[in-house]
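Trying the structure run again after the queue cleared.
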Amino acid sequence: MREPPISGYQQRRDQKIQQEHGFTGGYERVRLYVRQCRRHLRETFIPLDQDPGQRLEADFGHIYIDLPEGRKQVPVLVVTWSYSNCPFAIALPTERTEAILHGMAEAFAFFGCVPREVWWDNPKTVAPHLLKGRSRQLHQRYVALASHYNFEPRFCLVRRPQEKPRVEGRVQFLQQDWATPVPQVKDLEELNRHLRACCLRDRERTQAGQTETIGQRWERDWTAALPLPARGFDACIVQPATVDKYQTVRFDHNAYSVPRAYAFTTVTVKGYVERVEVVAGDQVIARQPRSYEQGVQVLDPLHYLVMLGRKPAALDHANVYRHWQLPAVFAELRTDLERHHGPTAGARQFIRVLQLLAEHPVARVQYAIERGRIGDAYEVEAIVRASAVPPNARTRPRRPRKWRMATP
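Done. Tokens:
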């Protein structure tokens, strides 16, 4: 076999080896020798067979979706059974611990059973510290998840993704099949409906080298797996906080409001994927939508109604009230009250009506305002009295029917 011509660069390289090390051969001989040595050093693997119901593999993939506001990349938690390769996928707003807890709880509910082992790589949101070998220091909430569902948390060796090949292949399948072309959805909820339909449809597929469908093998996984616990898991992270002078607690670089009665007290903040709850003792005192921005104030106008009575000027100077979306009849009421009683007195009477929202729903107060119009003006006292009556109640009590004895 004719050898390829030697370039000028190879000649200079051979000369340098001969001058510096006294080697009489050339670079090509060294390269062939090293390649032969590396072939013997390459790692090989023993084929493993997993028992039904034994093992679930988990990982994150990333796909693009088209939302009404534009194209966006979202993380998708993918889990699959090692025996049957039966999958579950759920799009989440982040890859944080609370998102993983939520996604795993949704996966177990989707399957209707629990594996004996759950395998991950080494995400810091699950295993903040790597110890010797396969030992890990786990996040307390992931320990709670494993204890609640009674599975064994397992992890691959560092930089050994081949130890969970099923889910690695599933992530590629997600990107190349389920997210191609780019899904056009209005929100993550619609995307997750699409992903669940894909997971169910995939059970009808027969994999290469198999004679049974994924669904047929999944039946053995389901039979051998552990049952679901009687109650669901509280998929959140928990941390203490102190309510500040603005009636807010800090969570994930944002501020969330609480009622005035809990100012300057220590409370517990529970962070879920879609909401934040504030707990005092065993009572949930505030429930707000979760924000994933930075430096945002998530405020509930109802939490500040007590202080609004003492500081009425905040009605026009605090964003929490300037941006409060209420039915149009509320603005009409304020305009009428200020026209008849003046700006200051009218604003105070309007605040008194707003404070009814701390005890009654908006629909009932709206009904009371409509009932409280007397002539061409609104009467606040009539509104207060009417707010205690549900909109569907009778305005007057029914008179008892009088019965008469039939005359012979």
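DSSP finds 14 helices and 16 strands in the chain. Worth checking whether this holds up in the mutant runs.
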